[in-house]
Structures are given as structure tokens and as C-alpha cells.
Amino acid sequence: MLLGQMLAGLPTCGRYAGEIVKQMSAVGVGSLPLVILVAIFTGAVTAVQSAYQLEGMVPLRYIGAVVQKSVLIELGPVLTALVCGGRVGASIAAELGTMRVTEQIDALETMAIPPVRYLILPRVLATTIMLPVITVFADFVAVAGGFVVTSMVFDQSWHTYFEAVRNTFEAKDLFSGLTKAAVFGAVIGLMGSFYGFRTEGGAEGVGKATTQAVVSSCVLVLVLDYVLANLLFRVAF
Amino acid sequence: MRARGLVKRFGTRAVLDGVDLDVHAGETVVLLGRSGSGKSVFLKHAIGLLRADAGTLEVMGADVTRADSTAWDRVRHDVAMVFQGGALFDSMTVGENIALGLRHQRRVAPQEIDAEVERCLAVVGLADTAPLRPSSLSGGMRKRVGIARAIALRPRLLLYDEPTSGLDPVTSDVINRLIRRLQRELGASAIVVTHDMASARFVGDRITMLHEGKLVFDGTVDEVDRATDPVVRRFVEGRSDEPVGEAAPAGGS
Known about the structure:
The structure holds 2 protein chains of 2 kinds.
Chain A: H1 2-8, H2 17-54, H3 63-101, H4 104-110, H5 115-154, H6 158-167, H7 171-197, H8 202-236
Helix pairs in contact in A: 1-5, 2-3, 2-5, 3-5, 3-6, 3-7, 3-8, 5-6, 5-7, 7-8
Chain B: E1 2-10, E2 13-22, E3 28-32, H1 39-46, E4 54-59, E5 62-63, H2 69-75, E6 79-82, H3 94-105, H4 113-123, H5 139-151, E7 157-161, H6 169-186, E8 189-193, H7 197-203, E9 206-211, E10 214-219, H8 221-226, H9 230-237
Helix pairs in contact in B: 3-4, 3-5, 4-5
């Protein structure tokens, strides 16, 4: 029902442009430092693990290719979504939950301001738009993180590493990763909003709503990752 | 506003059990009752935050008993509510809190909104507080900002939910005088939910009382003081016939 009301409000979203931009800034700028930190180590670990698994089978000059493919298709979108599911999903649920128990959402209704359009629509749009943007940053940083390790541990040159990255790059990998990120973004915004909006029972209720939002976002991200992998790589491409 | 046989149940418990109540133009009706008697629930029906299980409700001449959200939004252009805790948006400044409704309902030209906000704040005695955050205000100031936010929308019916609860006697008197003054200046009708008898006597043209979901008294301020109904008398005199509980354990040495 919440989703239906939100979709019905889409044509009016221009009226809430200021709120959408504010939320985009909170989701994007606010999450970037943590996402970058996670991405550096994701790229580094992927490089080390790839070298260990490929040793003796594939020349190590292909590490860059493995890191790039793993990050663009899977690790970039999924880990960014899990980080944002924790950070942004919790923040949305806690904020809306507190607004619910302190009657701020009721106050909006009494002023004839539809809470779903004013509160939920901007948040879901912001997470849907910003997750792919953050994922692009995460992808770049992770590939760079992989290079740092490859260069330090395996003494590989910049040229060798990025030659492998460039030669194996396919636009569909990036596109599928960003499609996943947009879907994950919508899920994070919806779960945070849904649990926050139906909060009951004061501080304890806000805590419960926050936990439920984070857990459900993370589980749904992993389930949808599997569904989207099948749709994108077995049906679409 | 006109309610007839209004019933609201939460589970098997009838919080409102056939309430009949009229509020005439320009009149301030005080709704008294003990905690949990259904006063705030009634108020939430009057602005569409809750829907009745049975009975009929007319607000500003419109039958809103089965109204959808669009119909309620039309009615809400004429009705405003002051919440018990203020319900101020803590992500906004005081000025933005008041401007939000004005902006959304497009009642005032955008270039006049700031002046209108300052005017409303001046009416409640809080001029120059527009840039402050609600978190930096005292309880009494928050309630006054809540009133400023409500009157900014120029309502014809104002609903006050416990406007003096949790305030010291002096601040309560400030709020009571403000409610009375607004009634004179705006000419709007009002329903004031309270359990503060001093406040009820000061602001009310008519006093009503809810007890266990039923309206047990409806009369003037003088009539409530002469009431013989034991439930009303106990409330007016602030007296309980219920046992307090078991004796406290004796203190050790």
C-alpha cells in the first residue's frame, strides 16, 4: 500500500525537489567516506585472494582483470549496498520512527501535507539515484586498491595491472552492476521508510524499527543479488 | 463540528462509546476527562487522524464520516491542531516549522512568507525566535510555537491537545491567556482537551466531560461547579475514591 501511494505521488515529485536534493546529499555525501574505506580493502583483498587462487593456473598479470570483473559485477554494488543498508537504512528508519512517535507525522497530515509524498518519496528516490553514483566511486577506488596491493606485494607495474583492467572491461559489466545498485538503493529506501513509518511504542519501537530495517535491507539485497544475476547474465546478456 | 453516536474501539475496548457533541461557530468547548478517557482520541477524529467505527461526524459542514484523504485535506485547510508535545519538526528551524504549512497550502505569496512567520511568532510572544531550533526551546516555548504554526494557517476550528500539561503555573497562565486572546482575535471555534480545571474555567465557553468513552457532562462553567454527578464532582474537586495501593514497606534504619 505504501509503495502504491508512493508511486501515485511520483508525478508530483517536482513539488518536493528541495527535499529530494537534501536527501540525495545526505545519502551520497554522507556515505562516501565509509564506502571508500570499504572499497579500498575490498579491492586489496580481492587482489590477494585472486593471486592465491590463480597461482600456477593463470599468469599473475591478469590480477587486474579479475579484480575489475569481480568489483564491477558483484563486490562494488553488493558491498556498497550492505554498507548503505546499515548506515542509510538505519538513519531513515530512526528518523521516521522518531517522527512517528513524537506525532510529527500526524502534524504533517493535519497540515494537509501527504506524509508519503513529503517524507518517503524523496528518501526512496534519493537512495535509488545515489546508490549507483556511490557505486561508481566504490568501483574506481576498489580497482585502485587492488593495484596498490598488486604493486606492493607482487611488484607488478602500473602498466601491466591497468592493461589487464582495460583489455577485459565490458560496458555490460558496469551497466549490470549499476542496475543492481539502483534496485538495492530502492530496497534500502523502502525498507527504512516502511519500518520507520509504522513505528509504535516510543524509544523501544524506534530501536526495533531500525533493526528490522537494516536486517531486511541486507537480506533483500543478497536475495535480489541472486535474482538479478540470473536476470542480467542469463536472460538479458 | 457535529458528532453523533461516535464509536471507536481499540480491540474489544470502546474508547469512544456513542459520543454526541456539537461545537458552534466561535465557541470554545473544553473536553475534560481522566487520562485514558478518550479525549485525545476524540480530537484525532475531528481532524481525520483516526476513523470512527460507527456514528457520524461533520466538520466545517462536511460529512467526513467516511471521507477519503482528499476530502479530509480540503477540511484540513480550515482546521488546525496544537499537539501536546508541540510535534515540531526537529530537522527544521522554528521559522521553517511555521512556513511549511503556508508554503504547502499556498495561502500566502512566497515573498510574504517570512513576514507572516514573524507576525505569527509575535502574536505568541516569540518574536525573533525564527532561526532557533526546536531543541533549544523550553516546553512552554515549544507549545507557543505549535500554536503559532496552527494559527498561521488561519483555521476556523482550532484543536488543542493538553495545551498546559507539563508546564509550571505561570507558563500555563500565559498559554491560557493566549488561547483566550486568539479566540477573540481570530473568532475561530476551538476544542481544548485538558484535565486542568483552572485552565478549563479560564478558556472554556462550555465544559464537557468524557468518562469511560461516554460524554457524562455538557454545560457552562458555572454548571460544572454545581454538578451533582459523582464522577464530575470527583474530577472537579480533584478527589479519588479509589484505593492508592498496598502500604509501602517500612524503611530500614
